[in-house]
Structures are given as C-alpha cells and as structure tokens.
Specification:
By secondary structure, this protein is mainly alpha-helical. It is built from six helices and three strands; from the N terminus they run ααβααββαα. The longest helix is centred in the C-terminal third of the chain and has 14 residues.
C-alpha cells in the first residue's frame, strides 16, 4: 500500500464546504467584529429568515467555527461568538477586505439583494 497522498483539491473542497451556504460568510464576518445575540444577527442580515439563520448557526457551531452560550435567565439569552479556530481565518478576511477595497467599485451592483425581504 502506497503512502497516503494528500489530495489538496479534496482538502480545499472540505475547507470550502465549511463556509459554503448563502449566509455563512456574512455571519462569520459579523461575529469576527463582536459577540451577537440571535435577534441582533437577524436584524444585521437583511433578508435572512429565522429558520435559515438557525440552520446556518447550527452548522457553524457543529464545525467548531462559532460558539453558542446560553444564559439561564428569563427571558433566555443566547450569545454567539467566533472561536479560536475561526479566528485563524483572519488573514483570509483581511485579504478579502483588501481585494474589495481595490476592486469592489468595479463589481456591478446586483438589484434586489438576496433572499427574502426582511419583515419590518
């Protein structure tokens, strides 16, 4: 049996899968700034539904990229934070910011935005 070779294409597909999903990068961007409560995240991301936000948060938590802290208070308080593992993506976020600052104005704006309209 040959030594196991690392297939970087497959490894990168696994990495991309961690952040794939319509809203995951936006959620990670926000949590990289500070800790958020569920309602704050929902208000900060126009067009996301409660169901979709819940699903995306659960996936990010299962992958170890965010942490969920429940406070035994009435009413119940839940906070989401980025993990140390996800902070390792900091250079990637910085590179994306630098790229956008240089080329973002050349990207055509999309009309209508994404997802459903947020309820007022």
């Amino acid at each position: 049996m040959k030594d196991a070779e690392i297939n970087m294409h497959e490894e990168m597909r696994r990495a991309f899968a961690l952040l794939s999903g319509k809203w995951k990068l936006e959620i990670m961007w926000l949590l990289n700034q500070r800790v958020y409560r569920f309602g704050e995240l929902r208000k900060a991301i126009p067009g996301i539904t409660q169901h979709m936000l819940t699903a995306q948060l659960r996936e990010l938590e299962a992958d170890g990229l965010i942490s969920r802290t429940v406070f035994a208070e009435v009413p119940l308080r839940v906070e989401y934070a980025i993990t140390k593992k996800a902070r390792g993506l900091g250079p990637t976020m910085e590179a994306l910011t630098a790229w956008w600052n240089e080329y973002g104005r050349s990207v055509p704006a999309r009309s209508g935005g994404r997802g459903r309209k947020a309820k007022a």
